[in-house]
Amino acid sequence: MNIDQIIDNIYCIPETSRLLLKENINEVRLPKGYLLFKADKVETAVYFIKRGIARAYTYQNDNEITFWFGKEGDTIISMKSYVENKKGYENVDLLEECDLYELKTTNLQKLFDKDIHIANWGRKFAEKELIKTEERLISRQFQTASKRYKQLLTDNPDLLQRVQLSHLASYLGITQVSLSRIRAEK
Amino acid sequence: MNIDQIIDNIYCIPETSRLLLKENINEVRLPKGYLLFKADKVETAVYFIKRGIARAYTYQNDNEITFWFGKEGDTIISMKSYVENKKGYENVDLLEECDLYELKTTNLQKLFDKDIHIANWGRKFAEKELIKTEERLISRQFQTASKRYKQLLTDNPDLLQRVQLSHLASYLGITQVSLSRIRAEK
DNA sequence: ATTCTTTTTTAACATTTGTAAAATTATTAA
DNA sequence: TTAATAATTTTACAAATGTTAAAAAAGAAT
């Protein structure tokens, strides 16, 4: 998934604005297992995933809890860092070798004040992330773990091949034992 | 909480832009129990709460599940309607008589394309809502119902006086019986 | 104040989910 | 291939939460 597709997918902007944005984006290749974000740091960049898969997790009395997976086309971002310039809760590690598009947030902020199309692009970005986050919240509040697991399978059939079940279990908010029980059910 | 405070609290914009925004906002008083949003409708306005308290809920096999409370300074919005022009999941009713500032989304969209300050204000609005939604998700995934109840008490001590426990229980994702047990604990 | 209605708590029991440890299966490296 | 390691499932039991129904408490209406 290339950078033009990713930009347009968020919100279509005129060619000149897109070029302005792309001037501030550069591509990086990082190895599997690479720790991209650390929970105790203010992150200074956002990343768009060209290829690969990543995971965000945090610690809850000594055990890792995975709360996000991102793959091709998704954005790796620490919202707390991006919006409030504060430390986030997320550690992000790469579950595969990844090609990422890197964009420094300070540069992006400058573009927001200069170009109305990019400002609206940034607005659309936040709005779309918001919808995704809200859907995760709703699904978590309204659906049983079992239903959410099945939903995940239909929405992201590849995920099961790409991430291990212990991560998936904590993502679903249940133990690995419970997930095994759910998988054994049918 | 007046409209200038509410606007500035989201993001400070120049006087001229604020006036432009305020031209499109009008105040309404609505009675307790009023059903402001319906789940099967595309909502065409957003509301800022000047005074009062509201609740968003949805149905999950015949029982109501409350998933949001809003009070003075908060925004009543159907994100699905606002962002994607689709039906949302929320019914919103007013738990007290409310004074609301109403803003039609079509008018707001026009301002976004015309005024870069308002575009950035809209961006900040989405970003701040995103942070709030993310925090709710994180709290829901990482904390027990008991801890979330106690957190709610410290964050919003007035909430307990203003909403009934059955709503609070479903908001916390537990039954009313469980909530009673939690409250009885200490 | 008294009745009626609604809200909240309590109780008993069923179901779900968690914990810890062992068994199985899959993956990696020599 | 084989041993070593890591991931997943299974088991048995414990703890937490749900269900249903009844009791108690609080609030509203006459």
From TrEMBL, chains A, B:
Record-linked SUPFAM superfamilies: cAMP-binding domain-like (SSF51206)
In Swiss-Prot or TrEMBL terms, this protein is called Crp/Fnr family transcriptional regulator
Q: Which InterPro entries match?
A: cNMP-bd_dom (IPR000595), cNMP-bd_dom_sf (IPR018490), RmlC-like_jellyroll (IPR014710)
Domain (Cyclic nucleotide-binding) ranges: 28-115
Organism lineage reads as: Bacteria, Pseudomonadati, Bacteroidota, Flavobacteriia, Flavobacteriales
Q: Which domain of life is it from?
A: Bacteria
